[in-house]
């Protein structure tokens, strides 16, 4: 009620904390509504981890095999689950029961676990608050809309069920520290993040080079002193995480659980990355070779069949091993590392880190489509900086969100995911076009007569002049319209025309089509990084 | 006027408003964004349970609507309202006007196409399935999108064209207030009903009034009446405004005749299948007025139910005398606002008239339901920009008055979420600048407000957490009802006075103009 009494003061003095709280609370309301929606097996994974960390003593955490969902996150996440289990026990003791709790689906566990995700999202809000502090209120507002109302996070965290908002929040806090020049804190937070989820380690090289060159400078003595300081902090974090397991002599078991390389190059649903093209090329070559009359060994495991074992799934092209993907990621990272080495600017660190995750996503081993959030969310921070950034982000974030659609395959959630993407696109479009029409309005006045307008949206006559301020070009527009075609085919035309034949085709098309967009984003980011001084 | 608008637009640009990026694209852009969000919220609510889910043998409103689809699809129109071996009227017999029946028939066609089992005669009774629920939910959703949303867009255009005022962010705020009405969303997409259709038609009719298209208003309102008899709650306002306007014309009789013809024509069109014989017409009519269901249902925050704590109306009076009593009370309660509109019809007065008429019907008419509060809430949302506090206050107590119902439907989660969403949107940063809170400056009043809000919050918790004493099992329902009733009385008194003040102001203005 306090807001009702003095609305004038709250409006005339815009308080970013209140505004941000408002944005996040609106999102929370939607998240609350989505509590009964579909959740994947990840829900049971996390429930089992609650039970596991609660019922078992620490040395048994990484040994337990009560459920197929063994603990495969680093120790900090296990500690986090242990912390949550304290509350879970108060809510409903069955949740944390190792055996009775298996596949427990009562409303209490669903509401409790969903609430933990919502509450842990506070870290994301904190990160975004820190990043937005030095920006103008308009940019800040836009960034909030892009991140706090991100459809990808809603789909993955609050429907599919994971804690990405929490983890990305830690990443954003680290990035905000680096941008402010507080390198030691930034490095510390990143080390903490790595002990929560090791998949974030892809940006490790960037962090290493950047901190080495930016933090550890100022002569040999001072530089070395700082290197030691940073090293101590990072080692301290890792000791806190892994120390107990080293003590119990389990460190090998922990790493064995954390890096299950037996899982194969691609997931059942191919993440839209580089390997999609590699597999396609292999299939195409195999077809051509077979046509030419050569006999080739038909691979025993098919990609479309689901998980892939150790045998080579490729007919013609060489087998891809984890080592190859590792080297490829490093090679792709190389230009960025050189840039970071030569001129370690705080203003570029967000781009570099995002680029590192893009490389990891495109060339990594057993990449999950959810990993695209790792670079889409940080890129939102820089999306408002220039028109090119905004254009790229507009396409990237739509593609990334669309590539998450197969996660929610039930009919009930279909309108929700479509509406989320639609709302996001609309808000982004209006946000970016207003943002850049303001900046470029002076320029457009001079050139508006010369250039033709390209915009699919109806606008009032007053804004005709601003029309060319923000557009994604005909290639971008037709690419995004192509998404519509792919979706229409998969949802409506495929079942009518082909019936039950080629059931994997719609998913395959989504993978290929989104992979195109992801490759574009990678090339764009690479060029952007190289072109800056 | 044009110049003033220009200045206002400039002011909008200068302000460091949180919504500049949206509102500077115009009303259509704001409407588009807000409506997509509103649809998203509706879809999210629709994944929750509906009324009577998994509760045989009678289930709830969901089953009623499904049963109507089953009946209308499989029987000829003449059989819809007739009790027979194929159509057992005691099991959710059709008791809404023909337009609802047609709508059921239309939706049944869609359902049959995708999921024939859910609308097959006899065998589908009590049908519950994943796909069936989804399809039913989507019929509501599509009705909402096709009728309520365009009507609101029309209303907003008409309203801001008529009043020629408002910052752009105010317009966006107003759209959000109308579209994200938590009560309407909870009842339609949670509990399961098609109020969006009849309310949407009323919104359209009100917008037509505002844009001076009286014939269109008559047509739309007649359709609303033919979709749900509840629409009659706002009939006095339409009637008195249009009558007052006709009387002001040079040729009143001709104007009234024109409007009357449209109304009669629309009714005749809708009732066509039942006009063959007086018998079939009366048959339908008797279905629409279920007087045997008593003067009130459950614990509704109206006069009859609240006063029944002291006076046992149901025991003391027979049904015919209660009918007469409630009729007289309703008419006399809505009379002041009607008289004002006939005497000095104005567009703004008309909006207040809608609120006053519907409130007096809610208070005094026969067979009122908790859900009937949706009707007074609709005109209150029209007036949200002028009476923001009043609107919030009404919404707060309307939600509270529905709380027991929604608890039964297991919709507590969406209830909490949508109430919070409403409060947040109401206090949107930079959404709306002037509030008429100057009406409530005194510390005593703010204390009263705080106290009442606290009371309602405590009642929520108590209703959920505390088991009522054996002797009075409905103690908390009665307390909720008492609190809501007292607030609705206050609202009704305030809006009636406001409407009369309005006419004084306008007459003063007219006089000034004359002197000038």
TrEMBL record, chain A:
GO terms for molecular function: dolichyl pyrophosphate Glc1Man9GlcNAc2 alpha-1,3-glucosyltransferase activity. Its EC number is 2.4.1.-. One of its GO terms (biological process) is protein N-linked glycosylation. It is an enzyme of class 2 (transferase). It is found in: Endoplasmic reticulum membrane. Keywords: Endoplasmic reticulum, Glycosyltransferase, Membrane, Transferase, Transmembrane, Transmembrane helix. InterPro entries: Glyco_trans_ALG6/ALG8. One of its GO terms (cellular component) is endoplasmic reticulum membrane. Its main location: endoplasmic reticulum. Pathway: Protein modification; protein glycosylation. It is a multi-pass membrane protein. The chain crosses the membrane at residues 20-39, 110-129, 141-161, 188-212, 224-249, 261-281, 288-308, 320-341, 393-409, 415-432, 472-492, 504-523. PANTHER family: DOLICHYL GLYCOSYLTRANSFERASE, DOLICHYL PYROPHOSPHATE GLC1MAN9GLCNAC2 ALPHA-1,3-GLUCOSYLTRANSFERASE-RELATED. This is Alpha-1,3-glucosyltransferase.
UniProtKB/TrEMBL annotation, chain B:
Pathway: Protein modification; protein glycosylation. It is a multi-pass membrane protein. The chain crosses the membrane at residues 20-45, 134-159, 171-187, 199-224, 259-279, 324-343, 349-366, 411-428, 449-466, 472-494. Its EC number is 2.4.1.-. It is an enzyme of class 2 (transferase). Its main location: endoplasmic reticulum. Keywords: Endoplasmic reticulum, Glycosyltransferase, Membrane, Transferase, Transmembrane, Transmembrane helix. Pfam families: Alg6_Alg8 (PF03155). The keyword Transferase applies. It is found in: Endoplasmic reticulum membrane. GO terms for cellular component: endoplasmic reticulum membrane. InterPro entries: Glyco_trans_ALG6/ALG8. One of its GO terms (molecular function) is dolichyl pyrophosphate Man9GlcNAc2 alpha-1,3-glucosyltransferase activity. Belongs to the ALG6/ALG8 glucosyltransferase family. PANTHER family: DOLICHYL GLYCOSYLTRANSFERASE (PTHR12413), DOLICHYL PYROPHOSPHATE MAN9GLCNAC2 ALPHA-1,3-GLUCOSYLTRANSFERASE (PTHR12413:SF1). This is Alpha-1,3-glucosyltransferase. It comes from Actinidia chinensis var. chinensis.
């Amino acid at each position: 009620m306090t807001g009702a009494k003095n609305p004038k003061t709250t409006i005339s003095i815009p308080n970013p904390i209140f505004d941000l709280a408002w944005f996040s609370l609106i999102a929370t309301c939607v998240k609350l509504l989505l509590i009964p929606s579909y959740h994947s097996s990840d829900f049971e994974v996390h429930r089992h981890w609650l039970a596991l960390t609660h019922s078992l003593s620490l040395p048994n955490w990484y040994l337990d095999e009560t459920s197929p969902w063994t603990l495969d996150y680093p120790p900090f996440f296990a500690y986090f689950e242990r912390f949550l289990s304290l509350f879970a026990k108060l809510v409903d003791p069955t949740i944390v029961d190792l055996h009775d709790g298996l596949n427990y689906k009562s409303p209490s566990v669903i509401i409790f676990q969903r609430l933990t995700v919502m509450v842990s999202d506070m870290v994301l809000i904190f990160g975004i608050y820190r990043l937005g502090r030095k920006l103008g209120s308009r940019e800040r507002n836009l960034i909030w809309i892009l991140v706090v109302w991100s459809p990808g996070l809603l789909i993955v965290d609050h429907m599919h069920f994971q804690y990405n908002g929490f983890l990305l929040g830690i990443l954003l806090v680290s990035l905000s520290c680096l941008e402010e020049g507080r390198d030691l804190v930034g490095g510390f937070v990143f080390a903490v993040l790595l002990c929560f989820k090791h998949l974030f380690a892809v940006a490790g090289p960037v962090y290493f080079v950047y901190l080495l060159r930016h933090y550890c400078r100022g002569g040999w003595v001072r530089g070395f002193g700082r290197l030691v300081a940073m090293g101590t902090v990072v080692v301290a974090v890792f000791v806190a995480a892994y120390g107990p397991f080293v003590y119990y002599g389990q460190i090998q078991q922990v790493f064995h659980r954390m890096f299950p390389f037996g899982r194969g190059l691609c997931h059942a649903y191919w993440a839209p990355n580089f390997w999609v093209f590699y597999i396609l090329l292999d299939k195409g070559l195999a077809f051509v070779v077979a046509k030419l009359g050569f006999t080739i060994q038909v691979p025993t495991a098919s990609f479309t069949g689901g998980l892939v074992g150790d045998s080579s799934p490729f007919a013609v092209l060489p087998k891809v091993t984890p080592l190859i993907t590792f080297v490829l990621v490093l090679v792709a990272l190389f230009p960025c590392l050189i840039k970071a080495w030569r001129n370690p600017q705080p203003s570029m660190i967000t781009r570099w880190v995002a680029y590192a995750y893009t490389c990891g996503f495109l060339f990594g081993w057993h990449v999950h489509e959810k990993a695209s959030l790792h670079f889409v969310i940080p890129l939102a921070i820089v999306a408002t900086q220039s028109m090119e950034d905004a254009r790229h982000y507009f396409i990237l974030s739509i593609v990334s969100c669309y590539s998450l659609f197969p996660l929610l395959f039930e009919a009930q959630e279909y309108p929700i995911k479509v509406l989320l993407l639609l709302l996001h696109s609309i808000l982004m479009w209006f946000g970016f076009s207003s943002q850049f029409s303001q900046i470029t309005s002076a320029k457009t006045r001079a050139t508006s007569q010369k250039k033709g307008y390209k915009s699919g949206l109806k606008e009032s006559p007053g804004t005709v002049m601003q029309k060319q301020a923000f557009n994604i070009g005909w290639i971008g527009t037709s690419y995004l319209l192509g998404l519509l075609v792919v979706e229409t085919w998969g949802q409506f035309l495929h079942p009518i025309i082909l019936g039950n034949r080629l059931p994997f085709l719609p998913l395959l098309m989504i993978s290929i089509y989104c992979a195109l967009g992801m490759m574009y984003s990678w090339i764009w980011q690479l060029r952007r990084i190289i072109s800056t001084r | 006027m044009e110049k003033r608008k220009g200045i206002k637009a400039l002011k909008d640009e200068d302000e460091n408003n949180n919504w500049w990026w949206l509102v500077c694209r115009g009303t259509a852009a704001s409407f588009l964004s807000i409506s997509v969000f509103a649809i998203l919220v509706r879809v999210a609510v629709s994944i929750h349970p509906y009324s009577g889910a998994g509760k045989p043998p009678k289930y709830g409103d969901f089953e009623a609507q499904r049963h109507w689809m089953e009946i209308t699809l499989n029987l000829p129109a003449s059989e819809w309202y007739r009790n027979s071996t194929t159509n057992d009227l005691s099991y959710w017999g059709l008791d809404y006007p023909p337009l609802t029946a047609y709508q059921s028939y239309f939706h049944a066609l869609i359902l049959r196409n995708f999921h024939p089992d859910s609308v097959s005669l006899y065998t589908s009774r009590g049908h519950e399935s994943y796909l069936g629920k989804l399809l039913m939910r989507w019929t509501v959703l599509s009705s909402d999108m096709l009728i309520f949303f365009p009507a609101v867009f029309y209303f907003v255009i008409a309203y801001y064209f008529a009043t020629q005022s408002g910052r752009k962010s105010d317009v966006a705020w107003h759209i959000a207030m109308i579209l994200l009405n938590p009560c309407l969303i909870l009842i339609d997409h949670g509990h399961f009903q098609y109020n969006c259709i009849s309310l949407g038609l009323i919104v359209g009719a009100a917008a037509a009034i505002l844009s001076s298209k009286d014939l269109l208003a008559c047509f739309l309102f007649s359709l609303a009446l033919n979709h749900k008899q509840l629409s009659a709650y706002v009939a006095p306002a339409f009637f008195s405004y249009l009558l007052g306007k006709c009387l002001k014309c040079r040729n009143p009789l001709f104007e009234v005749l024109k409007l009357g013809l449209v109304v009669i024509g629309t009714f005749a069109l809708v009732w066509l299948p039942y006009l063959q014989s007086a018998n079939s017409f009366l048959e339908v009519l008797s279905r629409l007025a279920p007087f045997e269901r008593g003067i009130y249902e459950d614990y509704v925050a109206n006069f009859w139910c609240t006063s029944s704590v002291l006076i046992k109306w149901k025991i003391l009076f027979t049904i015919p005398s209660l009918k007469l009593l409630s009729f007289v009370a309703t008419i006399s309660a809505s009379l002041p606002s009607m008289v004002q509109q006939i005497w000095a019809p104005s567009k703004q007065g008309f909006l207040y008239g809608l609120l006053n008429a519907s409130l007096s019907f809610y208070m005094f008419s026969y067979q009122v339901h908790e859900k009937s509060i949706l009707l007074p809430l609709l005109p209150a949302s029209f007036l949200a920009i002028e009476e923001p506090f009043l609107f919030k206050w009404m919404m707060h107590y309307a939600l509270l008055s529905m709380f027991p119902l929604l608890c039964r439907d297991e919709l507590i989660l969406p209830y909490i979420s949508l109430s919070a969403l409403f409060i947040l949107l109401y206090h949107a940063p930079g959404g709306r600048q002037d509030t008429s809170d100057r009406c409530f400056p005194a510390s005593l009043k703010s204390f009263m407000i705080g106290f009442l809000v606290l009371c309602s919050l405590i009642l929520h918790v108590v209703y959920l957490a505390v088991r009522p004493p054996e002797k009075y099992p409905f103690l908390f329902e009665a307390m909720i009802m008492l609190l809501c009733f007292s607030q609705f009385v206050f609202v009704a008194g305030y809006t009636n006075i406001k409407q009369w003040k309005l006419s004084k102001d306008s007459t003063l203005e007219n006089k000034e103009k004359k002197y000038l």
